[in-house]
Amino acid sequence: MAKVVGVFSTHLYQGSLPGNPALNRALSKDVEDFSAQDKLGQSWSEENYRNGYTSYASLSDMQFRSPTFAKFSDLMQPHATKFAKSLGWELKGCHLRMTTCWMNVMPKNSYHTLHLHPHSVISGTYYVSTPKGSVSLKLEDPRMPMYMNAPVRTRGKNNSHYYVVQAKAGTFVLFESWLRHEVPPNQSASPRVSISFNYEIEEND
Ligand SMILES: [Fe+2]
Which of 30, 84, 192, 204 sits a CA distance of 20 to 30 A from 109? Predict the structure, then answer.
């Protein structure tokens, strides 16, 4: 008798937020207003976020700037905690805290190259607006650097070097911050809008 045993799997946490059409309308309005005034973010994006806008380097504390983003942060918190619990993390005397939260506006052909999120433990993205043609999020198999002479594998579910998370307004995905990911060139005629955020572990008061 013999069997195959799967080990070291990578976990994602996916879900949606309640009341999302109203929440998304309010978030969209904030994204519009804040991005229009964010001159630093606009010039940073021109150099580093081709064709698009991100407040990653300028307004990365949106949860403290806008009541709507604060509400968003409150809605995400139990999910982050649940995810950490599912990962078996021992957070005795500590808790997860959303330390950064920023906006991303991706018109047609804008993209975000492969990256990870240093200095945090859980990262995530929430989709605010995903017009038809909005590109998906691609998560990379974390074992990629070790595939030295690995044979080519038959393509199939759970057998690819990438996992694709469909971008759908009102939904979110959480992952451990070391997991590399990218957003290939967007194909929607109007902008794809998302919010990204990080959690760190902080001691309880
Ligand atoms: Fe990211």
Answer: 30
